[in-house]
């Protein structure tokens, strides 16, 4: 399992089903507008099974989650909700259950591909490696 596969910086490139998904998970409309086609830069620091996953939003806001594979960690959603989750590694993908959606992240073709699913709505976000 390519252990350092995730480390790097990635810039938002495109997404699918954004509006349908954020409405489904109950994101307030001001946050929906902020996030639409937002050039989020995702920075991943990986040391073995320890990760720090930071999202830099335009305008200087950042959210950061630190976790270890297979250990419960305190996390924060894109809407700012705090919760506990255990991130697992399955077939080279990071897998986590957020309060109202299931999330996977993988490196595919040098890109960071994140998929969130909630009640049948699948949101896909692709980011290209910039560092």
Automatic annotation (TrEMBL):
Main location (coarse class): cytoplasm
Query: What residues does the Cytosolic fatty-acid binding proteins domain cover?
Result: 8-25
**Cellular location of this protein?**
Cytoplasm
Task: Write down any Gene Ontology CC term.
Answer: cytoplasm
Q: Name one GO molecular function term.
A: lipid binding
The record's keywords, sorted A to Z, are: Cytoplasm, Lipid-binding, Transport
What the entry lists under PROSITE patterns is as follows:
FABP
Instruction: Supply the InterPro entries for this chain.
Output: Calycin, Fatty_acid-bd, ILBP
Write down the Pfam families for this protein, in alphabetical order. Lipocalin_7
Record-stated family = Belongs to the calycin superfamily. Fatty-acid binding protein (FABP) family.
Name listed for the protein in its UniProt record: FABP6 protein
Give the species: Oreotrochilus melanogaster
